[in-house]
Specification:
By secondary structure, the protein is an alpha/beta fold. The chain has helices at residues 16-23, 30-37, 53-61, 67-76, 93-102, 118-130, 140-143, 150-159, 187-192, 208-217, 230-239, 259-268, 272-286; strands at residues 3-7, 81-84, 106-108, 110-111, 136-138, 166-169, 198-201, 221-224. It has a single domain (3-286), classed as Metal-dependent hydrolases (TIM Barrel). It is globular. Bound molecules: zinc ion.
């Protein structure tokens, strides 16, 4: 059984620009493909990656957002279940919920609506979690939500009772509010809600050691290693206590393929039981998928 906890449908990077990029069929995913080809080892270039910002940004925006493509990729990679991740206001929870309700191999997370009040968001939670949403997605950079704001703390306070995890984007990308991208910006939030499980998506990208440090220090921190090479995953396995219980497979499809992140986990983890935990059991437990 394989569960991918981090996939997208719809245009989370929505902008006038991305509509234009979509029309330009000549945009080839040259850098993204190269990066897949080398198993994401370009992450070792660290900040040098910033030199390729514009090109990467264009290529990400030109990725296909079709739900059908996801189902096709699941079949190709023998993936049994996928978590659909909304990012309001660009992709609303209603869309991912509707898709999950029509297909048993999909489940939906919920998204905070940054333009609505705390009370309105809390009211929407009731609807989302009674109707099958399995967790919360937070993208502070795209959503422009300050992780240390009163608003987010009030919303998290209400979210705690559902006993479901938060999947949070971490790491620098050429999009959104750069101040809210690094794992560091979540430090206060993670410390303040020890009963909420925070899954750091992409393991903080160019600075994965920070994500590993957080997982060592805080029991409520979990890691999702999309875009990370197998060497970094192996390092996380070595450093984090009970690491097999703290890492969950996610791909960030369609921005990444599902194939390379899956291969990287298989390469980094020899133990069959540990692999099984990371590829499915952890997700089943955290998102209550049984
Ligand atoms: Zn994502």
């Amino acid at each position: 059984m394989i569960i991918d906890i981090h996939t997208h449908v719809g245009d989370i990077l929505r902008s006038a620009e991305s509509k234009r990029e979509e029309k330009k069929k000549e945009i080839k995913r040259a850098l993204l493909q190269l990066s897949e080809y080398i198993g994401f080892r370009n992450i070792y270039l660290g900040r040098l990656n910033k030199l390729f910002t514009n090109r990467v940004s264009k290529e990400l925006k030109a990725c296909s957002k079709d739900a059908y493509k996801l189902l096709e990729s699941m079949q190709e990679n023998n993936i049994d279940m996928c978590g659909l991740v909304p990012v309001s206001p660009n992709v609303e929870t209603g869309i991912t919920m509707a898709l999950a309700n029509t297909n048993k191999s999909l489940f939906s997370l919920a998204s905070i609506n940054p333009s609505k009040s705390v009370d309105e968001n809390i009211e929407m939670f009731d609807n989302y979690f009674k109707n099958g949403c399995k967790g919360l997605k937070l993208h502070p950079a795209i959503q422009n939500i300050n992780p240390e704001s009163y608003k987010l703390f009030a919303i998290m306070n209400a979210y705690e009772k559902y006993n479901l995890p938060v999947l949070c984007h971490t790491g620098w990308l050429p999009i959104g509010n750069e101040r809210y991208q690094e794992a560091d910006s979540l430090h206060f939030l993670i410390k303040s809600f020890p009963d909420i499980k925070f899954i750091l998506a992409h393991m903080n990208l160019l600075n994965p050691d920070k994500a590993i440090d957080f997982a060592v220090k805080y029991k409520n921190v979990y890691l999702e290693p999309s875009w990370q090479p197998s060497g970094i995953i192996a390092r996380a396995m070595k450093k984090i206590p009970n690491s097999a219980e703290r890492i969950l497979f996610g791909s960030d499809f369609p921005y990444s393929s599902q194939t390379t992140p899956l291969k990287n986990i298989e390469k980094a983890v020899n133990d069959k039981k540990a692999r099984e935990r990371m590829l499915s059991l952890n997700a089943m437990e955290l998102f209550k998928l049984y």
